[in-house]
Design brief:
With 262 residues, this protein is of the alpha/beta class. It has a single domain, classed as TIM Barrel. Helices cover 43% and strands 11% of the residues. The protein is built from nine helices and eight strands. Strand 5, helix 5 and strand 6 form a beta-alpha-beta unit. Helix 1 crosses helix 2. Bound molecules: ligand 7PM.
């Protein structure tokens, strides 16, 4: 899954077409590099970010989604927690809903019950503005598993088929450095729930804080976490650096399948 970077000012009137064009070039490059899903990220999911209105979010996401669907054959995932955005995005061809709030916001379960697309349920402790202040768990893996079970049950009760669900432990969303690495170390524990796992560690603070490096210097760290997540059984890896990640994962794949290589 390639992350489409949408800059904050991308939708100001003057820059609209230029930015859509730049976004489409980014999408084309990610597809050529081996991405099979493009995640259109909402600014609203960033830790510490301010709330974005539904009108603003729609104005950002829908034109881009339309443009991608008109120009490419690729699955598009929409990063949103708003029922109205989910509904509209799906009507414009969104293939996956990626919700860092795991359908806990008003009307999300109801809207998604009337659709058939896959849904990524992400775990977050607290809210983006404050979640990194003092993350606390009784039992990290157990608490997150319990959250997943509760959200899976809520989906089933609402009439959303289990087969549509993808689980994501939410690296960096209300977790200390140590907790993030415990999650990576024990990611396979969530396989017990019988659903695909999505892992998103690309360029995150868990890499930068460990290695003391800025966001532009996190490629090696990001690739290493991608490999570990895959070895732990993740099905989808959400990344900025598609080409490098696909290369790294192809090496892992060859290693696991050496007996069928020539
Ligand atoms: C600043 C800090 C900007 C962090 C953006 C972020 C995830 C996600 C994000 C994830 C799923 C980023 C994050 N992270 N959706 N959205 N899983 N499913 O690194 O880990 O893009 S926002």
């Amino acid at each position: 899954m390639g992350i489409l970077n949408v800059t904050p000012d991308s939708f100001s009137d003057g820059g609209k077409f230029l930015h859509t064009d730049l976004a489409l070039q980014q999408v084309e490059a990610m597809i050529n590099d081996g991405a099979t899903i493009i995640d259109i990220g909402g600014e609203s999911t960033r830790p510490g970010a301010a709330e974005v209105s539904e009108t603003d979010e729609l104005a950002r996401v829908i034109p881009l989604l339309k443009a991608i669907k008109e120009n490419f054959t690729v699955e598009v995932s929409i990063d949103t927690s708003k029922a109205g955005v989910m509904e509209q995005a799906i009507s414009y061809g969104a293939d996956i809903i990626n919700d860092v709030r795991a359908l806990q916001n008003d009307n999300c379960l109801n809207v998604m019950a009337n659709t058939t697309v896959p849904i990524c349920l992400m775990h977050m402790q607290g809210l983006p503005r404050t979640m990194q202040q003092a993350p606390k768990y009784n039992d990290l893996i157990g608490d997150i598993s319990d959250f997943f079970k509760q959200r899976i049950d809520a989906c089933l009760t609402a009439g959303i088929a289990r087969e549509r669900l993808i689980l994501d432990p939410g690296f960096g969303f209300g977790k200390t450095l140590s907790q993030n690495y415990q999650l990576l170390n024990q990611l396979s524990a969530f396989k017990a729930l019988g659903l695909p796992i999505l892992s998103g560690t690309s360029r995150k603070s868990m890499i930068g804080n460990l290695l003391s490096c800025e966001v532009t210097e996190r490629l090696a760290g990001s690739l290493t976490t991608a490999i570990i997540a895959m070895q732990q059984g993740a099905s989808i890896i959400r990344v900025h650096d598609v080409k490098e990640t696909v290369d790294a994962l192809n090496i892992l794949k060859a290693t696991n399948n050496y007996h069928v290589l020539n």
